[in-house]
């Protein structure tokens, strides 16, 4: 809800969706539900937001990186009709820019997993393993 009510989001809407072509819809509790990997809480939070999403909407911008993990649930709750715009590619591109690297779209995934929590080394949260992306990170790209 904080993101939906933020000045930052209001500025983005004014800039990219003038004349009332965008409707902010809070997805109350979804980030916390994703972090707990509780499918019932995820379903309830997604249903809450879907009920408040205007009929006929053509696109939905997911305002939190957590939401990418449950994009299929969001799509299903919206009847498969709108296109979802997620943060994953934007976050990855910004990360590459900040470290001075160029994207390599055809590169095979390689590397090691290093998890930081508040800037300190940590383990991958157990809840992350409930999602395909977390499972992939835990096993590494060679596990395909």
Short description:
With 144 residues, the chain is mainly alpha-helical.
SSE topology sketch:
Blueprint: H1 7-16, H2 30-36, H3 39-51, E1 59-61, H4 71-77, E2 83-85, H5 88-99, E3 115-117, E4 120-122, H6 132-139
Parallel strand pairs: 1-2
Antiparallel strand pairs: 3-4
Number of helices: 6
Counted beta strands: 4
- Which CATH architecture of the largest domain is right? 3-Layer(aba) Sandwich
H/E element order = HHHEHEHEEH
How far apart, in Å, are the first and last alpha carbons?
37 Å
Radius of gyration: 17 Å
Overall body shape: globular
Report the major sheet: 2 strands, parallel
Summarize the structure in words.
The protein folds into two domains: 7-88, Rossmann fold, CATH 3.40.50.1860; 109-144, no CATH class. Strands 1-2 form a two-stranded parallel sheet. Strands 3-4 form a two-stranded antiparallel sheet. With 144 residues, it is mainly alpha-helical. The model has no long low-confidence stretch (mean pLDDT 87). The chain has helices spanning 7-16, 30-36, 39-51, 71-77, 88-99, 132-139, and strands spanning 59-61, 83-85, 115-117, 120-122. It starts with 6 loop residues before the first helix and ends in a 5-residue tail after the last helix.
